[in-house]
Input
Amino acid sequence: MWSEIVPGGCHWSWVMPRGSRMRMVALEAGANLSMVLYHAREKLERYNMPDSLKAQHTAHYTLGHVLMSDMGRALASITADTVGWHDPLGALLDAERMQAKYGDRSFHTHRNAMHRSGKDGLLIEIGKYGLARRDLIAPVNFFSKVAVDDEGRFQFAPGHAAAGAMVELRFDMDTLIAISTAPHPLDPAAEYAPKKVGLAAWKSGPAPADDACRAFRPECARALHNADLYYL
Output
């Protein structure tokens, strides 16, 4: 369908049709790609982080996991993964944290070398489809790892994804996605140096009856069944 290289710190959006796939590749070590997902036909239905984690008994995503909507349907499924851990909990870098951590580099002073926060980038993208600040949901931070220590504190794993690491999503409904390649908000790096990510999208067809994601957990099978029912 298409391919793109998204520079570090940039943002973009697409409507991915049911039965399409997208491969994301970390073109540099330490990449982060923050993604939000909405049902393209009815954008009030969107990815639900708490329900997805609770239903699948997990605090991170990898091969076999399903990104579920607040209607209990599968928006997308992870069909390939060489990373093994993608963060659903760490949220987004906002402008205030970015300026405090990296300094102020606005478009007015630095043009295309400006610093862009993940939150602002995603707000720009979803705004193109009539969505606003109240519609910005928790993202999935692909290529990033955030674990919890014995004291209950988030611990970020620097350089978690090596250059060439990849993950693939199959879209199980017509899905609006918006992405940002700004740094993860918990990344301890002292300099603003977001990494570029390669994307490729193609048509592969909906999940078959013997799909590995259907077999991963009963809750995944139910979410995929609910998505299938929508298209009968």
User: Anything to note?
Assistant: The first strand starts at residue 2 and ends at 6.
